[in-house]
Design a protein that fits this description.
Layout: H1 3-8, H2 12-27, H3 34-41, H4 55-79, H5 86-102, H6 104-112, H7 121-142, H8 149-170, H9 183-195
């Protein structure tokens, strides 16, 4: 389906978000223009404003869509391993790291474009849903309810380790370490240390 055909089927919003995603990856969140996104989507430069009030709102659309994909990837990672296993926990982390590696621009926007997020119930909910995947994996491993304070504390520790590792990778800061950091053994070691 071409961009113009998609537009006539009411999919311009998704087309614009996809175009901005590509531009964010190649030019960064500050290096794209709405007119370039419209050109890539095959529509006039005025068309995006039928779906988004401004450039910032388009970026928020990229953030929301990115968070949905990140959550789905983490859930799919956990589902590939036995419920409650350390491997299921590590797979949640692996999905997170893989997302950062493959889409560093979007990853940066998701965690860097925070202005106004506290006033956006949809983005807050999506953030809680992403963290909820980590909480669920930790709860199943510990055989405790997700709302248990120890589960929440350990889930936060897992997230902190993996989030920091992801940013060190995309910022190319891991070269200070002697030898290669292999994600899977690292994630298994972190999962074991935090949850056993």
């Amino acid at each position: 389906m071409t961009a113009k055909t998609a537009y006539h089927h009411g999919d311009l919003r998704a087309q614009l978000i996809a175009a901005v995603r590509e531009l964010v990856e190649s030019h960064g969140p500050d290096g794209f223009s709405v007119s370039e996104a419209a050109r890539r989507a095959g529509v006039s430069s005025a068309a995006p404003y039928k779906h988004f009030k401004d450039r910032h709102e388009i970026l928020r659309g990229v953030v929301a869509e990115g968070m949905d994909r990140l959550r789905a990837a983490m859930q799919a990672g956990a589902a590939q391993h036995p419920d409650g296993s350390l491997e299921a926990v590590a797979a949640v982390g692996q999905a997170y790291v893989t997302f950062a590696r493959t889409e560093p621009g979007v990853f940066r926007v998701v965690f860097g474009l925070t202005e106004g997020h506290q006033d956006d119930p949809d983005l807050l909910s999506k953030g809680q849903d992403c963290f909820g995947v980590v909480v669920q994996a930790a709860a199943r491993r510990l055989n405790l309810p997700p709302a248990d304070q120890d589960v929440m504390r350990r889930a936060y520790m897992l997230w902190s380790f993996v989030h920091g590792h992801s940013f060190l990778i995309i910022d190319r800061k891991t070269d200070v370490v002697t030898g290669e950091i292999d994600d899977w053994p690292f994630l298994m070691a972190i999962s074991r240390a935090v949850l056993q």
